[in-house]
């Protein structure tokens, strides 16, 4: 059974936090699916990831290509994960369900702490997942570094 980790972004934007988390997931040996809600925003994240100077390099692709199943990191707006991901990262309010948390090694919910609607959505997701018995952790960077603030 996996766990859901909630990341409350307040000090750094998604473009700075996502590569760090993707690097950690890849170091764990996990294939990753990044699920968003807006195709244009996923295009922006794709471009941002290509510009990151990470070691190791964050090889990735946008869903809809001939090689989706081969991508170690796949960016998508669809509910399916054709790259056989072990880790799902949701951004900008993308949905996640209890079956995914249970089946995967890790689910990461990244949300903008400066957006009231994003906070409400993340809180609702936390309540739904923990009520269903999923293990969850809440991480905040409000102090300037990531700290675990809650666990269920």
Give the structure's gist in a few sentences.
This protein is of the alpha/beta class and 152 residues long. The chain is built from 4 helices and 8 strands.
Layout of helices and strands, plus pairs?
Layout: E1 3-9, H1 14-27, E2 32-35, H2 39-51, E3 61-62, E4 73-76, E5 87-91, H3 98-103, E6 106-112, H4 116-131, E7 135-140, E8 147-151
Parallel strand pairs: 1-6, 1-7, 2-4, 2-5, 3-4, 5-6
Antiparallel strand pairs: 7-8
Structural overview:
The chain has one domain (3-151): Rossmann fold (3-Layer(aba) Sandwich), CATH 3.40.50.10110. The chain has 4 helices and 8 strands, in the order βαβαβββαβαββ. It is of the alpha/beta class and 152 residues long. The chain has an 8-stranded mixed beta sheet, with helices on both faces. A hairpin with a 6-residue loop joins strand 7 and strand 8 (147-151). The longest helix has 16 residues, at 116-131. It has helices at residues 14-27, 39-51, 98-103, 116-131; strands at 3-9, 32-35, 61-62, 73-76, 87-91, 106-112, 135-140, 147-151.
Specify the CATH architecture.
3-Layer(aba) Sandwich
Main sheet, how many strands, which sense, barrel? 8 strands, mixed
What is the general shape? globular
- Please identify the oligomeric state: single chain
Helix proportion of residues, in percent?
Answer: 25-40%
Number of helices: 4
Give the C-level CATH assignment: Alpha Beta
Q: Any idea of the CATH topology?
A: Rossmann fold
End-to-end span in angstroms? 14 Å
Radius of gyration (CA) equals 14 Å
Strand content: 25-35%
Low-confidence stretches: none
- Strand/helix succession: EHEHEEEHEHEE
Structural class: alpha/beta
The tally of beta strands, per DSSP, is: 8
Tally of distinct domains: 1
- By CATH, the superfamily comes out as DNA polymerase III subunit chi
Read across the widest sheet, the strand sequence of neighbours is 3-4-2-5-6-1-7-8
- Mean pLDDT level: 95
């Amino acid at each position: 059974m996996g766990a859901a980790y909630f990341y409350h972004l307040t000090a750094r934007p998604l473009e700075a936090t996502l590569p760090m988390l993707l690097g950690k997931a890849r170091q764990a040996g996990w294939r990753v699916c990044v699920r968003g809600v807006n195709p244009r925003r996923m295009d922006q994240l794709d471009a941002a990831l290509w510009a990151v100077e990470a070691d190791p390099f964050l090889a990735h692709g946008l869903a809809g290509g001939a090689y989706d199943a081969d991508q170690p990191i796949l960016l998508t707006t669809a509910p399916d994960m054709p790259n056989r991901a072990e880790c799902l990262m949701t951004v900008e309010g993308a949905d996640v369900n209890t079956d995914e948390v249970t089946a995967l090694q890790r689910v990461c919910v990244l949300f903008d702490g400066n957006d009231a609607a994003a906070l409400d959505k993340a809180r609702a997701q936390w309540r739904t997942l923990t009520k269903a018995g999923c293990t969850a952790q809440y991480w905040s960077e409000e102090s300037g570094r990531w700290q675990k603030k809650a666990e269920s």
